[in-house]
Amino acid sequence: MATDPEDICRNLIPGEETEASEFIRQHPGYDGRGVIVGIMDTGVDPGAPGLQVTTDGKPKIVGMVDCCGDGDVDTSEIRSTGELQNGRVIKGVTGRDLTIPDDWHNPTGDWHVGVKALYQLVPKNLLNKVRKLRRQEKWDKQFEQSLTIAQEERDKFEASKESEPGEGICEGINFCKLRRDELNQRVECLKDVDKNYNDSGPAYDCIVYSDGDKWWICIDTSETGDLAACQLLRPFKQEYKHGTFKLGSTGTNAILYNYGVNVYCNGNQLSIIGMSGSHGTHVAGIVAANFPDEPQRNGIAPGAQIIVLKIGSLFVDSMETQKSLIRAVTAAIDTHCDIVNLSFGESVQYYARGQVIKRFTELTNKYNILFVSSAGNSGPALSTVGAPAASTSSIISVAAYVTRSMMEKEYSMINSVESTVYTWSSRGPIPDGDIGVTIAAPGGAIAPVPNFTEQGTRLMNGTSMASPNACGCISLILSALRSDNTYYNTSTIRSAVINTAKPIEPLSNFSMGYGLIQTVKAYQLAVKLADRPERKIWYKLTWGSKRGIYLRTPWEVSKPAERLVNVQPMYSETAVAEDKINLDLELSLEPTEAWVECPRKFNLYNQTRSIKVKVTPDKAHPGANFAEVLAYTANRDIGPLFRIPVTLINPSEIFVQDFCKSLEFKSDTKLHRHFIHIPEGVTWATLELLPLEIEDRESTFVYVHALQLLPEQSFCTNNFRTAHTLKLNSTTSLSLSVIANNTMELDIARWWTESGNMKLQMRLQFFGGSISNISYNTSIAHNGITPVKLMLYNHLTPVNISPEMKLTSAKTTYLPTEYNIEPLPEHYNIPGELCHYELSLTYSITVNGKGAVTVYCPILDSLLYENPFGSQMWFVYDSNKQLLGVGDAFSSDGRYKINLYKGTFTVHLLIMNDSRDQLDYLTNTVLICSEKISDISLPIYDNYEASILADGKVAQKTSNLSRGFYPLYLGVIPEGKIPSFCKQGCVLSGSLTIIKDPTGKSVVNTPVSYNLSSICSGKSSKKKSPKPKDNQTTEELLVEFLLTQNKDSNEYLEYLIDLNGKYPESNFHIKLNLCQTYLKTEEEDNYRKVIEIVNSIKYDKNLLILSKEKNELRIDDIKRKNEEDIQLIIKALKCKFSAINHINLLTPDADLTQLDELYLELSDLSSPGNLTDQSISHCKAHNFHALAIKLLMDNLESGSTVKLHSEITELYRKLRWDFIADRDEYHSQVLFPSKYISV
């Protein structure tokens, strides 16, 4: 029997289960046409399959906005027509000559230029592939050829036995050895460069100009300045055309990376809109993909158009940022979106708060733009919905559902199971009482992905896929309503969707919200609601600061509870006084469960009124209970006007220290939930899982999820979630920390694909053991620091303790060196709204060793959606303005670590807000820099006397510590262990571990900090008092004054010449400074004057005694004055060496004898480490370029400079290694930008 191809593809983007497919069959003209959908995501590929045209032939993507600023290019630098060289050539920011094509019309005469490093536009998962292709094309072949030549030259030299130094060579320098070293080093240099291969990618010149009417943009992808060979684009919304970067190769195997462009700030800012991943294209395809020749592959609303709102920033690993989210709201309003999808989210500490949430709520309630968002993938425990879905009731939050048809067609499962919610889909309710999950939709799809993946489509799953499915369904409804000119607002659509959603038994409201979205029924109800004035407003429900009733803690469920819930009618800005006056509703209130009681009648008018809701826990079942108070008008068939959610968590298990239970899983049983009130003294537990029966197999896959909630803490704080394969008759043991006096949810969930019956033995054992005094603060006492007394408390049966304290990082606090507050450009602001401002804080941080560094702002860290200031982002730069690292929220957990070297760095912290006054309060915001240090272990003692005498250390494990209190004493940090750079105010951080489980995992531990007082230092050292100076002569006093002056001025040089004339036989300082100043002039005559001056210096050569054993100056028997003179003499000889070397460079075929003799003399007077510059010059003079490169590369340890980088590149060219030099010239555009890069 033949298979219908359309049937095979029908559920690749599922639409049958949600009635979306049926809706289009009934209303083929309402397939999303006339609806604009904003996709807040990682960006969308404008060249991806299915995203080219709508069903009625219109452009699919009609706007692209880079809301996170990854693609921003500063084009404020202007080249005027008068600067054109050779007729049509201007100088690009990279230094390349850019040839302007003859047909470019620019009556303004202004050419805005900028530069963009390509790799700043490319997602990380693509970079490795691009680098591999570039290496194959631009590196590997040339490297192999160069290495072969270098090896052949080395072998030839060795075979020739060239050992004579040659005519005119200075005796004492073994040039044969140097030649051998040079040839060997060429081989090693090539191998090292290849081993440490790094590709910063090309830097493209960018040009923006106006033809008097519209902007034009060109990016020099030729990298040669041939602009005629490059694409000329207009801002995307004007022509709907995109550009394409050919990544990795110039050949047919190039990776195609599509992008759009925009121009802002009157041409001073170019925006290149790329992608930070494939996620956004997939999401857009689910919503609205259209395949004219293969309609069975279409998205849910193929007629809809798309606005790309890129909020996933490449700077922070494709994560959303506060600034990008706020800018996306502005862009959604500016581009007239009808509905927005956001398949992103994070856990939050504070619900229904923050600038981002405020803007999202305004987007729906003020600007009538529907907002659909993913619930999250943090289940299966309750209360795991992330923001923004968790933080505003205006958003439609979507859970992920999987059907049998999806299992067969998307996942190719042989034996499908019952349709269900995915195991990992987040569950409600929100800790502030809101239901959390609004509806469910199919959470898997095979949909388009970007061309750079070199795939057409891909299977992805998650609530990220469920949200756009629901978004597409709602877009169909909007298409019909708009086409028929039927009134709607966000409130009526939300009510229609909720009140028609299809509950799926036995799945709960926590999993699916009100059920699976039903497009046909929701549309029908939306039409009915259009004529109901009470449905055109929305109702704000609050109990205090909460949005619902959620009783979970032991004291909340121990007795009946009464709550007053406020109901406040909310109107749009277009509402008139008559609308408010006419609101007079007589409502019927009905609880859905017997354990909830409320008044039967409720009158509501334009005023906040309260409803008393009573909850009786004894009437409810053990475990999780959900109910609602439904408010109906007389017209009940259109569903409740509003709903008051009520959640009650009754303990499902009585606490027993050693708890055993048999769990039985049927084919349709996916989850067992347990709620246990943890009593005082319990701090950790062990969980053992033993499968006793598994139908038709030897193993099964399960999720174990334990969760405890605390006020104003993210659910991630006390969250234990792990997946395991359990084998038949084999015990799996786990350990987890718990919180006393709190309800713990423990879930054992089978993976959603698992089928068949299973019996599982679960054993849960609880233990005690807690510690006090978690902050370790120093104070003045014995030896400067007193030991700290800790109290170990064991409330339960005996435990084994393993006390251990380690300090692993050093944190230094910085205040800003400067700040600035400026209004942000107009494209950040909603027309007619308040202006957004940005506070820029500058810090200078010092890193004390090579390694990973974490930077964060403590008052704003861990706040994203709930951040009261709207935005924070920091950027770290080196002395060359190169951007080294970026971070946003959640920086303190180390996710944005930067590998830095020893030195000083600049940090810019940007904070955005719509109130300049609020930003004024943050101008002294503290920044923390945390560096990894070698672990410092602190001794732990069992009594106070031992801690003072450093005796009786409790380092070994102590078994069977019975109930009671036990003092422990943290000793002082061992002498010399505090890093020398740690000064007063520095904090050493680490952890204190008291108890480990049998596998050695720490289960009772706490973070600790050791705050250094003024008496703490790295190593004790006695400072010598400065030796009083002898009576100074007049010329010495003049020199001291001179050293404070500007050394680059002509007056300084003239003054030095005058002093040298007055005191020709005296102070070395005058002559040395005069030589150094002459060298800066880079004039041959002055070089000769340097030689003359140094030759005129009279000194006793007997003072220059070399200790060859130690390779350093012996100064034991030389007076301090002579010691200083020796160093001055060496510096003077170095000046002479530099002068001779410069003269030789200016002289073709120069005689190097004098240079060699002086180098030999310096080598006898000073150690090699003090002659690096001279050694480099000497090697270069004799064409020992590889040896010179090695010496120069050693200097890179302390940071690169433009001069050093250029010098090495020049040497590569002299060695005919152009492929390395070309690579390094690309690097220079990234390593040494002319301006700071930020967003």
UniProtKB/TrEMBL annotation:
<dbReference type="Pfam" id="PF12580">
    <property type="entry name" value="TPPII"/>
</dbReference>
<dbReference type="GO" id="GO:0005829">
    <property type="term" value="C:cytosol"/>
</dbReference>
<feature type="active site" description="Charge relay system">
    <location>
        <position position="464"/>
    </location>
</feature>
<feature type="domain" description="Tripeptidyl peptidase II second Ig-like">
    <location>
        <begin position="795"/>
        <end position="982"/>
    </location>
</feature>
<feature type="domain" description="Tripeptidyl-peptidase II first Ig-like">
    <location>
        <begin position="544"/>
        <end position="649"/>
    </location>
</feature>
<dbReference type="Pfam" id="PF00082">
    <property type="entry name" value="Peptidase_S8"/>
</dbReference>
<dbReference type="GO" id="GO:0006508">
    <property type="term" value="P:proteolysis"/>
</dbReference>
<feature type="active site" description="Charge relay system">
    <location>
        <position position="41"/>
    </location>
</feature>
<keyword id="KW-0645">Protease</keyword>
<comment type="similarity">
    <text>Belongs to the peptidase S8 family.</text>
</comment>
<dbReference type="Pfam" id="PF21316">
    <property type="entry name" value="TPPII_GBD"/>
</dbReference>
<dbReference type="InterPro" id="IPR048383">
    <property type="entry name" value="TPPII_Ig-like-1"/>
</dbReference>
<dbReference type="InterPro" id="IPR046939">
    <property type="entry name" value="TPPII_C_sf"/>
</dbReference>
<feature type="active site" description="Charge relay system">
    <location>
        <position position="279"/>
    </location>
</feature>
<dbReference type="InterPro" id="IPR022229">
    <property type="entry name" value="TPPII_Ig-like-2"/>
</dbReference>
<dbReference type="GO" id="GO:0004252">
    <property type="term" value="F:serine-type endopeptidase activity"/>
</dbReference>
<feature type="domain" description="Peptidase S8/S53">
    <location>
        <begin position="32"/>
        <end position="515"/>
    </location>
</feature>
<dbReference type="InterPro" id="IPR015500">
    <property type="entry name" value="Peptidase_S8_subtilisin-rel"/>
</dbReference>
<dbReference type="InterPro" id="IPR046940">
    <property type="entry name" value="TPPII_Ig-like_sf"/>
</dbReference>
<keyword id="KW-0031">Aminopeptidase</keyword>
<keyword id="KW-0720">Serine protease</keyword>
<dbReference type="GO" id="GO:0004177">
    <property type="term" value="F:aminopeptidase activity"/>
</dbReference>
<dbReference type="Pfam" id="PF21223">
    <property type="entry name" value="TPPII_Ig-like-1"/>
</dbReference>
<dbReference type="InterPro" id="IPR000209">
    <property type="entry name" value="Peptidase_S8/S53_dom"/>
</dbReference>
<dbReference type="GO" id="GO:0008240">
    <property type="term" value="F:tripeptidyl-peptidase activity"/>
</dbReference>
<keyword id="KW-0378">Hydrolase</keyword>
<dbReference type="InterPro" id="IPR023828">
    <property type="entry name" value="Peptidase_S8_Ser-AS"/>
</dbReference>
<dbReference type="InterPro" id="IPR036852">
    <property type="entry name" value="Peptidase_S8/S53_dom_sf"/>
</dbReference>
<feature type="domain" description="Tripeptidyl-peptidase II galactose-binding">
    <location>
        <begin position="670"/>
        <end position="756"/>
    </location>
</feature>
<dbReference type="InterPro" id="IPR050131">
    <property type="entry name" value="Peptidase_S8_subtilisin-like"/>
</dbReference>
<dbReference type="InterPro" id="IPR048384">
    <property type="entry name" value="TPPII_GBD"/>
</dbReference>
<protein>
    <recommendedName>
        <fullName>tripeptidyl-peptidase II</fullName>
        <ecNumber>3.4.14.10</ecNumber>
    </recommendedName>
</protein>
<dbReference type="InterPro" id="IPR022398">
    <property type="entry name" value="Peptidase_S8_His-AS"/>
</dbReference>
